[in-house]
Amino acid sequence: MRYLLLTAAAVAFGVAAVPALAAPAASGQPELLPRSVLFGNPTKAGARISPDGKWLSWIAPKDGVMNVWVAPAVDPSAAKAMTNETKRPIRQYFWSPDSAMVLFINDKGGDENFLLYGVDVATGAQKTLTPFEKTRVIMGGTSRDRKDTLLVGVNNRDAKWHDYYELNLKTGDLKPVFHNDGFSGVLADEQLKIRGASKVRDDGGVDYYRVVDGKAEAQPFTSVSFVDNNTGPMAFSRDGKTLYWTETRGRDKAAVVAQDYASGKFTTIAESDKADVAGALWSPKTDRFQGFSVNYLKTEWTLTDPAAKTDMDLLSSKLKGEIGVTSRTDEDDRWIVAVDPVTAPSATYLFDRKTKTLTQLFVSRPALTGKTLAAMRPVEIKSRDGKTLVSYLTLPAGSDADGDGRPDKPLPMVLNVHGGPWARDSYGYNSWHQWLSNRGYAVLSVNYRGSTGFGKAFVRSSDGEWAAKMHDDLIDAVDWAEKAGIADPKKVAIAGGSYGGYATLVGLTFTPDKFACGVDIVGPSNLKTLYDTFPPYWTSGLSLWRKAIGDPRTPEGLKLMQDRSPITRVDAIKKPLLIGQGANDPRVKQSESDQIVAAMKAKGIPVTYVLFPDEGHGFARPVNNIAFNAVTETFLEKCLGGRAEPIGDSLKGSTIQVPHGAEYAPGLAEALKTTK
């Protein structure tokens, strides 16, 4: 039931290794944490409890690859691997509503053509439930009343649009229920009956249509403007009479409202003037609204249900850190609870609400237990035009003797830029922050304009501002860190993935004297070719992209795209650049990295280019992630002067290729010889 209206418009750009012996710590510094501990497979992660409460599940390594394991809830030690993926780690899975199957999606080599698979818990038999080539499945809904059926969308008929089917989990049969020619998403009720569909207009707004007997009505029953395009239906109540929305019409911060579907009347049930409502809870048993969360600097919950509030207060008294309820039984009598202490590895518990007992299931990265991890500090930074940029600063442990949030002396710093750009950085354990701070760097992550969660005006203020005001925000944050004595102005690197990779290229081309070096992971170099090569299932969202980066159908839009593309300013690059790319990336094609590397090569400008033939938009296989980070670490050591664990044999087992520039990254050429 709790599925958001699915749309292609929203896009956000993220063998259990035996730890190497930690390098001895320099005087006054914590021990060097091995990359394998920080970026290798966790021992266990992603715990869930089956809807009927009989089973526990989690993802854990099997022969070095993350697979789904299942155990009786009464005996977690009796876990067995239910899946047998040998190459691509499983990162998303869930239980069938009848608790008979574990369901998961996976792609091939990072191509994001996700297929749906199911494993029968009783027999161990696995089925491919959407057995199509070059097809991307999306979930349309689950039901507590029709437990053996799912609603799924597949784009095997037309890659641009997802047709919807009822999937019978017992037989595998797919029954067509909605033929889609132009709708970005659908909304179903508890009986899996499609009752609504959305269509993105050319001006970026969205129209919502009632669906009757599998057909959308001719006229929308409501519409939202481009400014409010993060408004959208969330789910129907179990009785189908109430439709819940995330709503920004008439307000800046997103609220949760309930609409009487017959009369159209709206009632606000959750809102905050601090930030968007980030999450909402309904009881899976009673369907009663239980509370909501807001994430400004940190996540804050408001519980309106007395029993839920009592239990959350109890959990808060026993667990120290950011607490989340990640899975619940249909009876709502047992919860899976995760706690993130930030300066210790996260832990997962089973909470029995009847007996009030809390049982630890596992610690995800036990090798970090007892190690010195750095604290993360939320900070508010003012942009030059007065916007508040919620940001997160991590200093190396021991560098801030008086605890005032400033190091004892300015440090080399890495500006770590999040992808999206319609996403956000949040408070919590962050592997890059821990890794880089352990190496001696201050790390700063900035929610620049366009980041989500801070109201629609903040998001919309990014339109047309790629490489302009969005980049100004990043520069303003660096200036703040330098003026505060946090960052050494001569030793600031910029790094990030996707939009963060683009921001890195912008940093080295538009402001070539600001940064000492850059690390670009799957970042676009040319906004026009980026737009031209978006995957076909993003068709409905192209109007949003035209608002963001320019409309290539007009001379003005084409000029904007050209002006804001780093490829047009390659001559300005004068600082070291490291580029990482997945060959199968459907969002930012390999050609985006190829073309800027070729341009730099032609002009004799040094660049190191790392390519993984079995990865897509980011590096999912830990062995590849570790390999790239090994290169990054020695690259940053040369640029910024921090500490580094030698590359050593970190490239072994990875598929790393270096088409150009191995000689510019310390130790890379030598390490590559060990992979052959």
Explain what the structure shows.
The N and C termini lie far apart (50 Å). The protein has 676 residues and is α+β, with helices and mostly antiparallel strands. A hairpin with a 3-residue loop joins strand 23 (289-295) and strand 24 (299-303). The longest helix has 19 residues, at 622-640. The protein has a nine-stranded mixed sheet, with helices on both faces. Strands 13, 14, 15, 16 and 17 form a five-stranded antiparallel sheet that branches. The chain has a four-stranded antiparallel sheet with strand order 1-2-3-4, with no helix packed on it. The protein contains twelve helices and 37 strands.
Protein topology:
Blueprint: H1 35-39, E1 45-49, E2 55-62, E3 65-72, E4 80-81, E5 92-95, E6 101-106, E7 115-120, E8 126-128, E9 137-141, E10 149-158, E11 161-168, E12 174-178, E13 185-188, E14 194-200, E15 206-212, E16 215-216, E17 222-224, E18 232-236, E19 242-247, E20 255-260, E21 266-270, E22 277-282, E23 289-295, E24 299-303, H2 306-318, E25 322-328, E26 334-340, E27 347-352, E28 357-363, E29 376-382, E30 388-394, E31 411-417, H3 431-438, E32 442-446, H4 456-460, H5 469-483, E33 487-497, H6 499-510, E34 517-521, H7 527-532, H8 542-549, H9 555-563, E35 577-582, H10 590-602, E36 608-612, H11 622-640, E37 657-660, H12 668-673
Parallel strand pairs: 31-32, 31-33, 33-34, 34-35, 35-36
Antiparallel strand pairs: 1-2, 2-3, 3-4, 5-6, 6-7, 7-8, 9-10, 10-11, 11-12, 13-14, 14-15, 15-16, 15-17, 18-19, 19-20, 20-21, 22-23, 23-24, 25-26, 26-27, 27-28, 29-30, 30-32, 36-37
Domain Peptidase S9 prolyl oligopeptidase catalytic: 433-642
Keywords: Hydrolase, Signal
Organism: Caulobacter mirabilis
